[in-house]
Design brief:
Blueprint (H helix, E strand, L loop, with lengths): L3 H7 L4 H23 L8 E5 L5 E3 H15 L4 E6 L6 E2 L6 E9 L10 E9 L7 H4 L8 E7 L3 E6 L5 E6 L4 E6 L10 E3 L10 H11 L11 E2 L5 H11 L2 E4 L12 E2 H14 L3 E3 L16 E2 L1 E4 L1 H11 L10
Parallel strand pairs: 3-5, 11-12, 11-13
Antiparallel strand pairs: 1-2, 3-4, 5-6, 6-7, 7-8, 8-9, 9-10, 13-17, 14-16, 15-17
Helix pairs in contact: 2-3, 5-8, 6-7
The structure holds 1,6-di-O-phosphono-beta-D-fructofuranose and magnesium ion (MG) (2 copies).
The site of 1,6-di-O-phosphono-beta-D-fructofuranose has 12 residues, from strand 5.
């Protein structure tokens, strides 16, 4: 099995990007170690702090953010970083080639129940000139690399540099990432979907109708039965979609009109969309491809529908219908 270094070199990845990917991969090994020690290391539970998005930070949110920040600050290829847990962008060096956006610990609500969590990252080219938040506001199409690390029964790194999606598994005996799937591929069709059903009454008409039709199974317009899964960590749900197909969505809702979306564009939706497209799937808001969005804020949120191409298309058809005349929606 190829090591991460061997795989990057066989893909012809240039030295600066390879260095950065190693920094991220090495830090994820340390995070995996901390996550695995859980209560033994006193890292479970919440802090008294909130992040810029008004969410109470878990201890591990802060610990993992600091680990990644420190490692990226020491990497000469990094010009700046943006994190879910940082209010503002952080300038790192004067001359680095890359900007890194990351969610240090995705699925925070799973920490205290010993369930799946992960790290998501997106690498953008650093524009020349003075660094500001504007430097980061690039469409997802500009990403030069993206990936996630899943801290599950085994620790796995899914990575794309625009040449398909490679999956590595951390060998716990040698602490080395080894290539265990050289080209992840999402089946075009699926009969599995993932959505937080408890928000059903808050969704817009297209999603209400689409999910109702899935639930009707064989007696409905789709004429087949669908299964549902919800891990409550995007990283786990997207990993399942990459592994065996499926549709994952966190749609627009009006639960809190000031927050119509949940997932963050720069460090959740864009990197996952890059991976999904590279594995042959699709990623949309319902109205446009996620990676085509021109960002306006590093912490901006967005509706996400991603996964098996034909099923995403089926969902998008519901978004092209005018429901304004429908009495009950
Ligand atoms: O709590 P809900 O509604 O199930 O939302 C789960 C979603 O929220 C998230 O946990 C948000 O990520 P963070 O844990 O990084 O804030 C996603 O990973 C996941 O898909
Ligand atoms: Mg997250
Ligand atoms: Mg997070």
């Amino acid at each position: 099995m190829q090591t991460l270094a061997q795989n990057l070199s066989s893909q012809g990845i240039e030295a600066p990007l390879s260095q950065l990917i190693h920094t991220l991969a090495d830090t994820s090994k340390a995070i995996s170690h901390a996550v695995r020690h859980g209560a033994l290391a006193g890292v479970l539970g919440a802090t008294e702090q909130e992040n810029v998005q008004g969410e109470t930070q878990k201890k591990l949110d802060v610990i993992t953010n600091d680990m990644l920040k420190d490692a990226l600050k020491a990497d000469s290829t990094v010009r700046g970083l943006a994190s879910e847990e940082e209010d503002y962008i952080v300038e790192v060096g004067q001359s680095g080639d890359f900007l890194v956006c990351f969610d240090p610990l995705d699925g925070s609500s799973n920490i205290d129940i010993n369930s799946l969590v992960g790290t998501i990252f997106s690498v953008l080219p650093a524009p020349s000139g003075e660094l500001s938040e504007k430097s980061f506001l690039q469409a997802g199409r500009n990403q030069v690399a993206a990936g996630y690390v899943l801290y599950g029964p085994s620790t796995m790194l899914a990575l794309t540099t625009g040449k398909g999606v490679q999956l590595f598994t951390l060998n716990p005996d040698t602490n080395e990432y080894l290539l265990t799937c050289e080209a992840m591929s999402i089946s075009k069709d699926t009969s599995e979907f993932a959505i937080n059903m408890s928000n059903q009454r808050f969704w817009e008409a297209p999603m209400q109708t689409y999910i109702s039709d899935l639930l009707l199974g064989k007696i409905g317009p789709r004429e087949k039965s669908f299964n549902m899964r919800w891990i409550a960590a995007m990283v786990g749900d997207v990993h399942r979609v990459l592994s065996r197909g499926g549709l994952f969505t966190y749609p627009t809702d009006n639960k809190n009109p000031e927050k119509p979306y949940k997932l963050r564009l720069m460090y959740e939706a864009n990197p996952m969309s890059f991976l999904v497209e590279q594995a042959g799937g699709k990623a949309s808001t319902g109205y446009e491809a996620i990676m085509d969005i021109a960002p306006t804020d590093i912490h901006q949120r967005v509706a996400v529908i991603l996964g098996s191409a034909n099923e995403v298309d089926a969902c998008l058809e519901y978004h092209s219908v005018d429901y304004s005349e429908e009495p009950n929606l």
